[in-house]
Amino acid sequence: MMRAYKFLMRPTVRQEQALGEMLSDHCSLYNGALQERRDAYRHPSKTNITYGMQSAQLKEIRGFDPERQGRWSFSSQQATLRRLDKAFAAFFRRVKCGQTPGYPRFRGVNWFDTVDFPKDGDGCRWDSTPHDPVTRVRFQGVGHVKVHQHRAVAGNVKTVSVKREGRKWFVVLTAEQAQPEPLAPTGSVVGIDLGIANFLADSGGSFVAGPRYGRKAAEKLEAAQQALSRFPRRKAHDRTANHQRAVEKVAKLYGKVRRQRLDHAHKTALDLVREHDFIAYEDLKIRNMSKTPAPKPDPDQPGNFLPNGAGSKAGLNRSIADAGWGVFLAILNAKAESAGREVMAVDPRNTSRRCPACGHTAKENRPTQEKFSCISCGHNAHADTVGAINVLRAGLVRREAQPA
After folding, report:
1. pTM of the prediction?
2. Do the beta carbons of residue 139 and residue 118 sit within 8 Å?
3. Rounded to 5 degrees, what angle do the CA atoms 126, 333, 327 make?
4. What values do phi and psi take at 363, rounded to 5?
5. Residue ranges of the domains in the chain?
6. How confident is the model over 326-333, as a mean pLDDT?
7. What digits encode the pLDDT tens for the residues 344-360?
8. Distances from the Cα of 284 to the Cαs of 170, 288, 290, 323, 346, in angstroms?
9. Nearby residues of 81 by Cβ (< 8 Å), 6 or more positions away
């Protein structure tokens, strides 16, 4: 199995400058390759430019511009061209499926923050000074950079990436490891119901409160964004020092909220994986749930529109994004696979409207957001707990129906 590690780097001033130049030059390569594809498509001949054709031009490009392109790793430049090729492959896949295409766009320097090295030892070297008590990673054109390695790396390092986040630099490793020993069986099964008021309710009647980190930071974010809005929009190299500080303050606040959500998701998922052998959850279509409501034209007054609840839906969409369900479910599945646990997604329809006692399903069974009261048998419970129980039952039925 493959596992990722992310460590903070501590470059010197010159190394930080070199890392910035590396990102800038790879960004130029990406944009140049994108421009070549656009020009070829607009040409009457409709020439199809492929990754192989652009990769074959690298040697000539490096010789023509040795100061900017020739100093960096050849394989990392190939990885940048592969990134563009994948963007075009995804574009054509979406066109074929009838989805919103999303044509690949040019990247500004501030929007190009990662350089990949496909193989450790080719243009980079993890732990390049093994006899030194300080861990270092070496990059071609940069040198040996100190790394704050807060945990050991198990397995063989396969790929290395450089990532910039604000003013911080990180090295991201992927290591191939043997499949770890599964956790000891607990004999416990659980269903979970994700929500907003409560982040999670399980079939046993327990709740995990919603942290709502975004809402807690909303006041500070609003003030920081208002301060930023006073500056005219400019490119990064044209910003004043005060403008740049305002940009970094907003990015810092958003980064903190993101890290808090990740930390909460990791801890919650780890608790579930340690305590239960089987976990069932709702297969939520989060993107559909957070769509903006369609406008409602007024049939009596052409050009005018009727209220469509967009204001309240915007608040709900913010709460859904703040909960971070998608990130949590991805982490849960990864941890369960590593621990030898079973995770299953089930159809979420009517899970909070079906009575777990008699099986009666009706919209009236849920008079409020939290209360469940069956109109057939009178069973009363918390609506999220009822949903989690029904999710577990559906998961167990699906588990039994699967072929061995």
Report:
1. 0.83
2. no
3. 80
4. -60, -35
5. 2-176, 189-401
6. 94
7. 999 999 998 999 999 99
8. 33, 9, 11, 13, 9
9. 29, 30, 33, 51, 54, 55, 58
